[in-house]
Amino acid sequence: MVDLEKTALRLGMVPLVDAAPLIVARDKGFFARQGLEVQLSVESSWASIRDKVVAGVLDGAQMLAPMPIAATLGIDAVGVPMVTAMSLNLNGNSIAVSEALYQEMGLSPCEPVAAGQALRTLLTRDRKLGRRKRVFAHVFPFSAHHYELRYWLAASGIDPDRDLRLEVVPPPLMVQALLDGRIDACCVGAPWGAAAESAGAGYRVISSFQIWNHSPEKVLAVTDEWAQRHPQTHRALVAALIASCRWLDQPEHRLEAAQLLIDSGAVDAPPATLRAALDASAIGAPHSGQLVFHAGAANFPWITHAVWFIEQMRRWRQVTEEVDALTVAANVYRPDIYREAAARVGVAVPDEDGKSEGHHASPWTLDTRSGPIIMGSDRFFDGQTFVNCAAAPLLTAGRDPG
Amino acid sequence: MRVMLVDDDLGRMALLRQALAAAGNEVVAQLGPAEDLIAAVARHQPDLILIDVDSPARDTLESLGQISRDRPRPVVVFASHSDSDMARRAMRAGVSAYVVDGMQPTRLKSVIDVAIARFDEHQALRRELADTKTRLADRRDIDRAKGVLMQRRGLSENDAYEQLRKMAMDRNVKLGDAARALLAVAELL
What are residue A218's phi and psi, to 5 degrees? Predict the structure, then answer.
C-alpha cells in the first residue's frame, strides 16, 4: 500500500439521504480498508461547510456539485480554488408544491410540460389580478436545485426573475416553510420532498430526473491546495467512496443502508421517508428517478457536467465576466484523479472526459478500454441537447442512440 | 446602529443584546434558526447582522447577496470552534468578520467597527471596479462609434466626436450609451 500523507480526516456532510456514501463508508469499513480514519461532521448549512473546508477545519466535504466551481470562479465571495474528483450521486431532487398551489394548478399525475403550462397560466392570471408573487424555494445559490428549477421555469415560458420570487431555505426547514405558507413550492433533495408529503405540507409534482435524466447532484470536494498537498490521501479517499457507492447501488444493501442512516441520527426525518428514498425495488427501472450512487459511471466527474453548470451560472448572470468554461471545468473536475482511484478498487472507467447530454432517452452502452459500461438515459424534458462546441475534442465519448 | 441577531443559544443572545445596547446599538430583531430571515431583513432593515456559524439560516443570508436587488449588509459570524486560522481565512472569504469563541462584551464594539469598515471598503472596491469597467467600455464604444461616423459620413475625428456628443445631449443620455445606440443601428443598416 502507498504511503498516505494523512490518515485521520474530518469530512463535512449535510443531513440528506445523499450523504449515505459517507456514512456507509465509515460504518461498513470502506474508509478503513484504504487506511483512513474518518470522522464525519454534520453541518447545518452549505455556507458553513464551505468556510470550514476553506479554513482547513474540515479536510473535505459533501458539496453541491456547482459549489467547487463557484468557489474556483470566485463568484461565491470565497474565491478559493477547489477540486472534485468524484460525484457522490445522480438524481434525488424533487419539486414539491404546497397543498393550496397544487389545488390551484389542478394537476393529478404530473410531468414537467403539463405542470409548467399549468403554472404559467396561473401566474399570468395572478398578474392580471394584481396578486402577490409566488415564492419558490431552493437550497443554495450554487445548487443543482437552483438551476433545475430555473431551467424548468424558463422552458415553460416563465421568467424566474420577473414572474415569481426565488428564495433560499435550508432543506431541514423546508417542510415547515411550506406548512407556514412562507413558500408556495420548493426544489429540495431527498428525503425532504417525501417528508413534506407525509407531513401534509405539499405534493411532489416533478422530480429532477424528469427535468434532466441522471443529472449530477452532490460531489466530494476539497480545496485545490489540500489536493496538492495530499495526493495519495485524496486518491485513497476517492477509492473508499467509490467502493461505498458501489455497495450502495446493490439492491440487497439498500435496506441496510437506510438503517445505517436512521441509526446514525444524522438526518432528522421520519424513518419511513428515509427507507422510501433508498427503496431498492425501483433500482434499474428506466424511469424510476431513484438516487443512483454508482451505476452508469455515476461517480465519474464528467467535465461536461461542470461546463453545463458554468453555462447556467452565465445564463442567470451569476457569472458576468468572460470565462473559458472548458478550462475552468477541467481545473475543478478531475477525471485523472478519479481514474487512478477507480483502478485501486477495480472499477471500469470512461476513456473520455466528457459526454453529450440529452441524446439518450433509454439506457445505452459506453465502450471503454476497461470494459463496457451500461449508461443511464440523459434526456432533458424539453428535448434540448447539450454539447459545448469548445468541448468538442473532449466529447468524443457517447454514442448516438442507435 | 440597527442590529439583527440570529442564534439559537438564548444565553449568548442575552449577553450580546446587553453588550450591544451598552455600546449604543439597537437590537431590532432576534431570530431563532427556523425563522424567516428574508422577511425579517425586509421588515427590520438592519444595518448589521450577527449570526452563529452553525445556523442553517446562513445559506439564506448568503443568498441575499446573490443575484439580489437587496442591499447587502455587513455580517458578523460567530464561530464556536477556537480555530484562529479559520477566523482569518473566513474573514477573507466575504464575511465581514469572524469572531471565535468567547463573546467578550468589551471587544464587541471594536469587532463591529472592524466589520463595518471592512464591509464599506469591500463595497467601495466593488463600485470602483464596476466604474472602471464602465469607463473602459465607454471609451472603446465611443472610439468605435466615431470610426463608424468617420467612415460612413466622411467626417473628421473631431466632427465625429461632436456629432456623437450632440446626439447624446439631444437625447439626454450618457456619451457611452449614445455610442452603443449608434453602433447597434449601424449594425442593422
Answer: -110, 155
Task: Name the residue among B38, B54, B65 with its Cβ closest to that of A48.
Answer: B54
Contacts of A133 (CB under 8 A, 6+ apart): A126, A163, A164, A165
Q: For A196-253, how does the pLDDT look when each residue is reduced to its tens digit (9 = 90+)? A: 999 999 999 999 999 999 999 999 999 999 999 999 999 999 999 999 999 999 999 9
Side chain identity at B179, as an amino acid letter? A
Please say whether the beta carbons of A95 and A248 come within 8 A.
Answer: no
pLDDT in tens, B98-155: 555 455 556 666 667 766 676 677 667 777 877 888 888 899 999 999 999 998 888 9
Say yes or no for a CB contact (<8 Å) between A55 and B58.
no
Grid coordinates belonging to A263? 441509526
Phi, psi of A280, deg, nearest 5: -80, -20
| A294's grid cell | 454508482
Instruction: Give the amino acid at A289.
Output: G
- In angstroms, what separates the C-alpha of A225 from chain B's closest C-alpha? 14
Distance of CA A38 to the CA centre of its chain: 23
Q: How far is CA A316 from the centre of its chain?
A: 19
Neighbouring C-alpha atoms within 13 Å toward the C-beta of A246: 14
Q: Do B86 and A56 touch (CB under 8 A)?
A: yes
- Shortest Cα distance from A10 to chain B (angstroms)? 14
Q: ipTM for the complex?
A: 0.86
Taking alpha carbons only, the member of A27, A50, A51, A52 closest to residue A38 is A27
Cα–Cα dist A32/A7, whole Å = 9
Q: For residue A339, what is the enclosing H or E element?
A: helix A335-344
**Could you tell me the pLDDT band of residue B97, with boundaries at 50, 70 and 90?**
low
pLDDT tens per residue, range A301-339: 999 999 999 999 999 989 988 888 989 999 999 999 999
Q: Could you give the angle at the alpha carbon of B135 between the alpha carbons of B134 and B138, nearest 5°? A: 85
Pick from A57, A139, A182: CB nearest B86: A57
In chain A, the residue whose alpha carbon lies closest to the alpha carbon of B87 is: A55
- With an 8 Å Cβ cutoff, are B56 and A170 in contact? yes
Among candidates A152, A137, A262, which has minimal Cα distance to A206? A152
State the cell numbers at A56: 482547513
Neighbouring C-alpha atoms within 13 Å toward the C-beta of B77: 29
Reported pTM = 0.84
Q: Find cell 472499477 and name the residue.
A: A347
